[in-house]
Amino acid sequence: MKRLFDFVVALCALLTLLPVIIVVAALIRFKLGSPILFTQNRPGLNGDIFKMMKFRTMLDAKDKQGNLLPDDQRMTKFGSFLRSTSLDELPGLFNVLKGDMSLVGPRPLLVQYLPLYNKEQARRHNVRPGITGWAQVNGRNAISWEQKFELDVWYVNNQSMWLDLKILLLTVKKVFIRDGINADGHVTIEPFKGSNND
Description:
This protein is an alpha+beta fold and 198 residues long.
């Protein structure tokens, strides 16, 4: 039921939002240049790696050594707008159609975080990652990593269609009020460096 629900809703959303997707893609090409999409390997169900798609929100500015500048120096007002409105997440609907992601589930994080999770935190990979999730509607980037993982595992233990519908409705509310987008002192959230508990 969940997979069928994901596929139907993602397909309908893509068809409905196609004009928005085209306009956003054109604006990114004009304001940020190519590429329009940001793709990155992320761990999905059971930790299997897939290529996640988002709209690009940052410049590719580099220092004299060829290294990318910090996020806060590459983020533009336009990119911040895309993130705060979650418009950058629209290409993720294609990941949902492919079966890499679900509409609702723990957010797919960086591959390099995999060895840093403790046994309980790693359970977040027992379900497909989501475009939105329980942690996203309960603080998003404004809560600690430990709180985020506790919420992710709570979702794994309590997932249901009714909970997914509740999260989707709360996500719409969060998008409109633009709550919890950034962590203090960071464009998004500070990197995860591992937990103190096993």
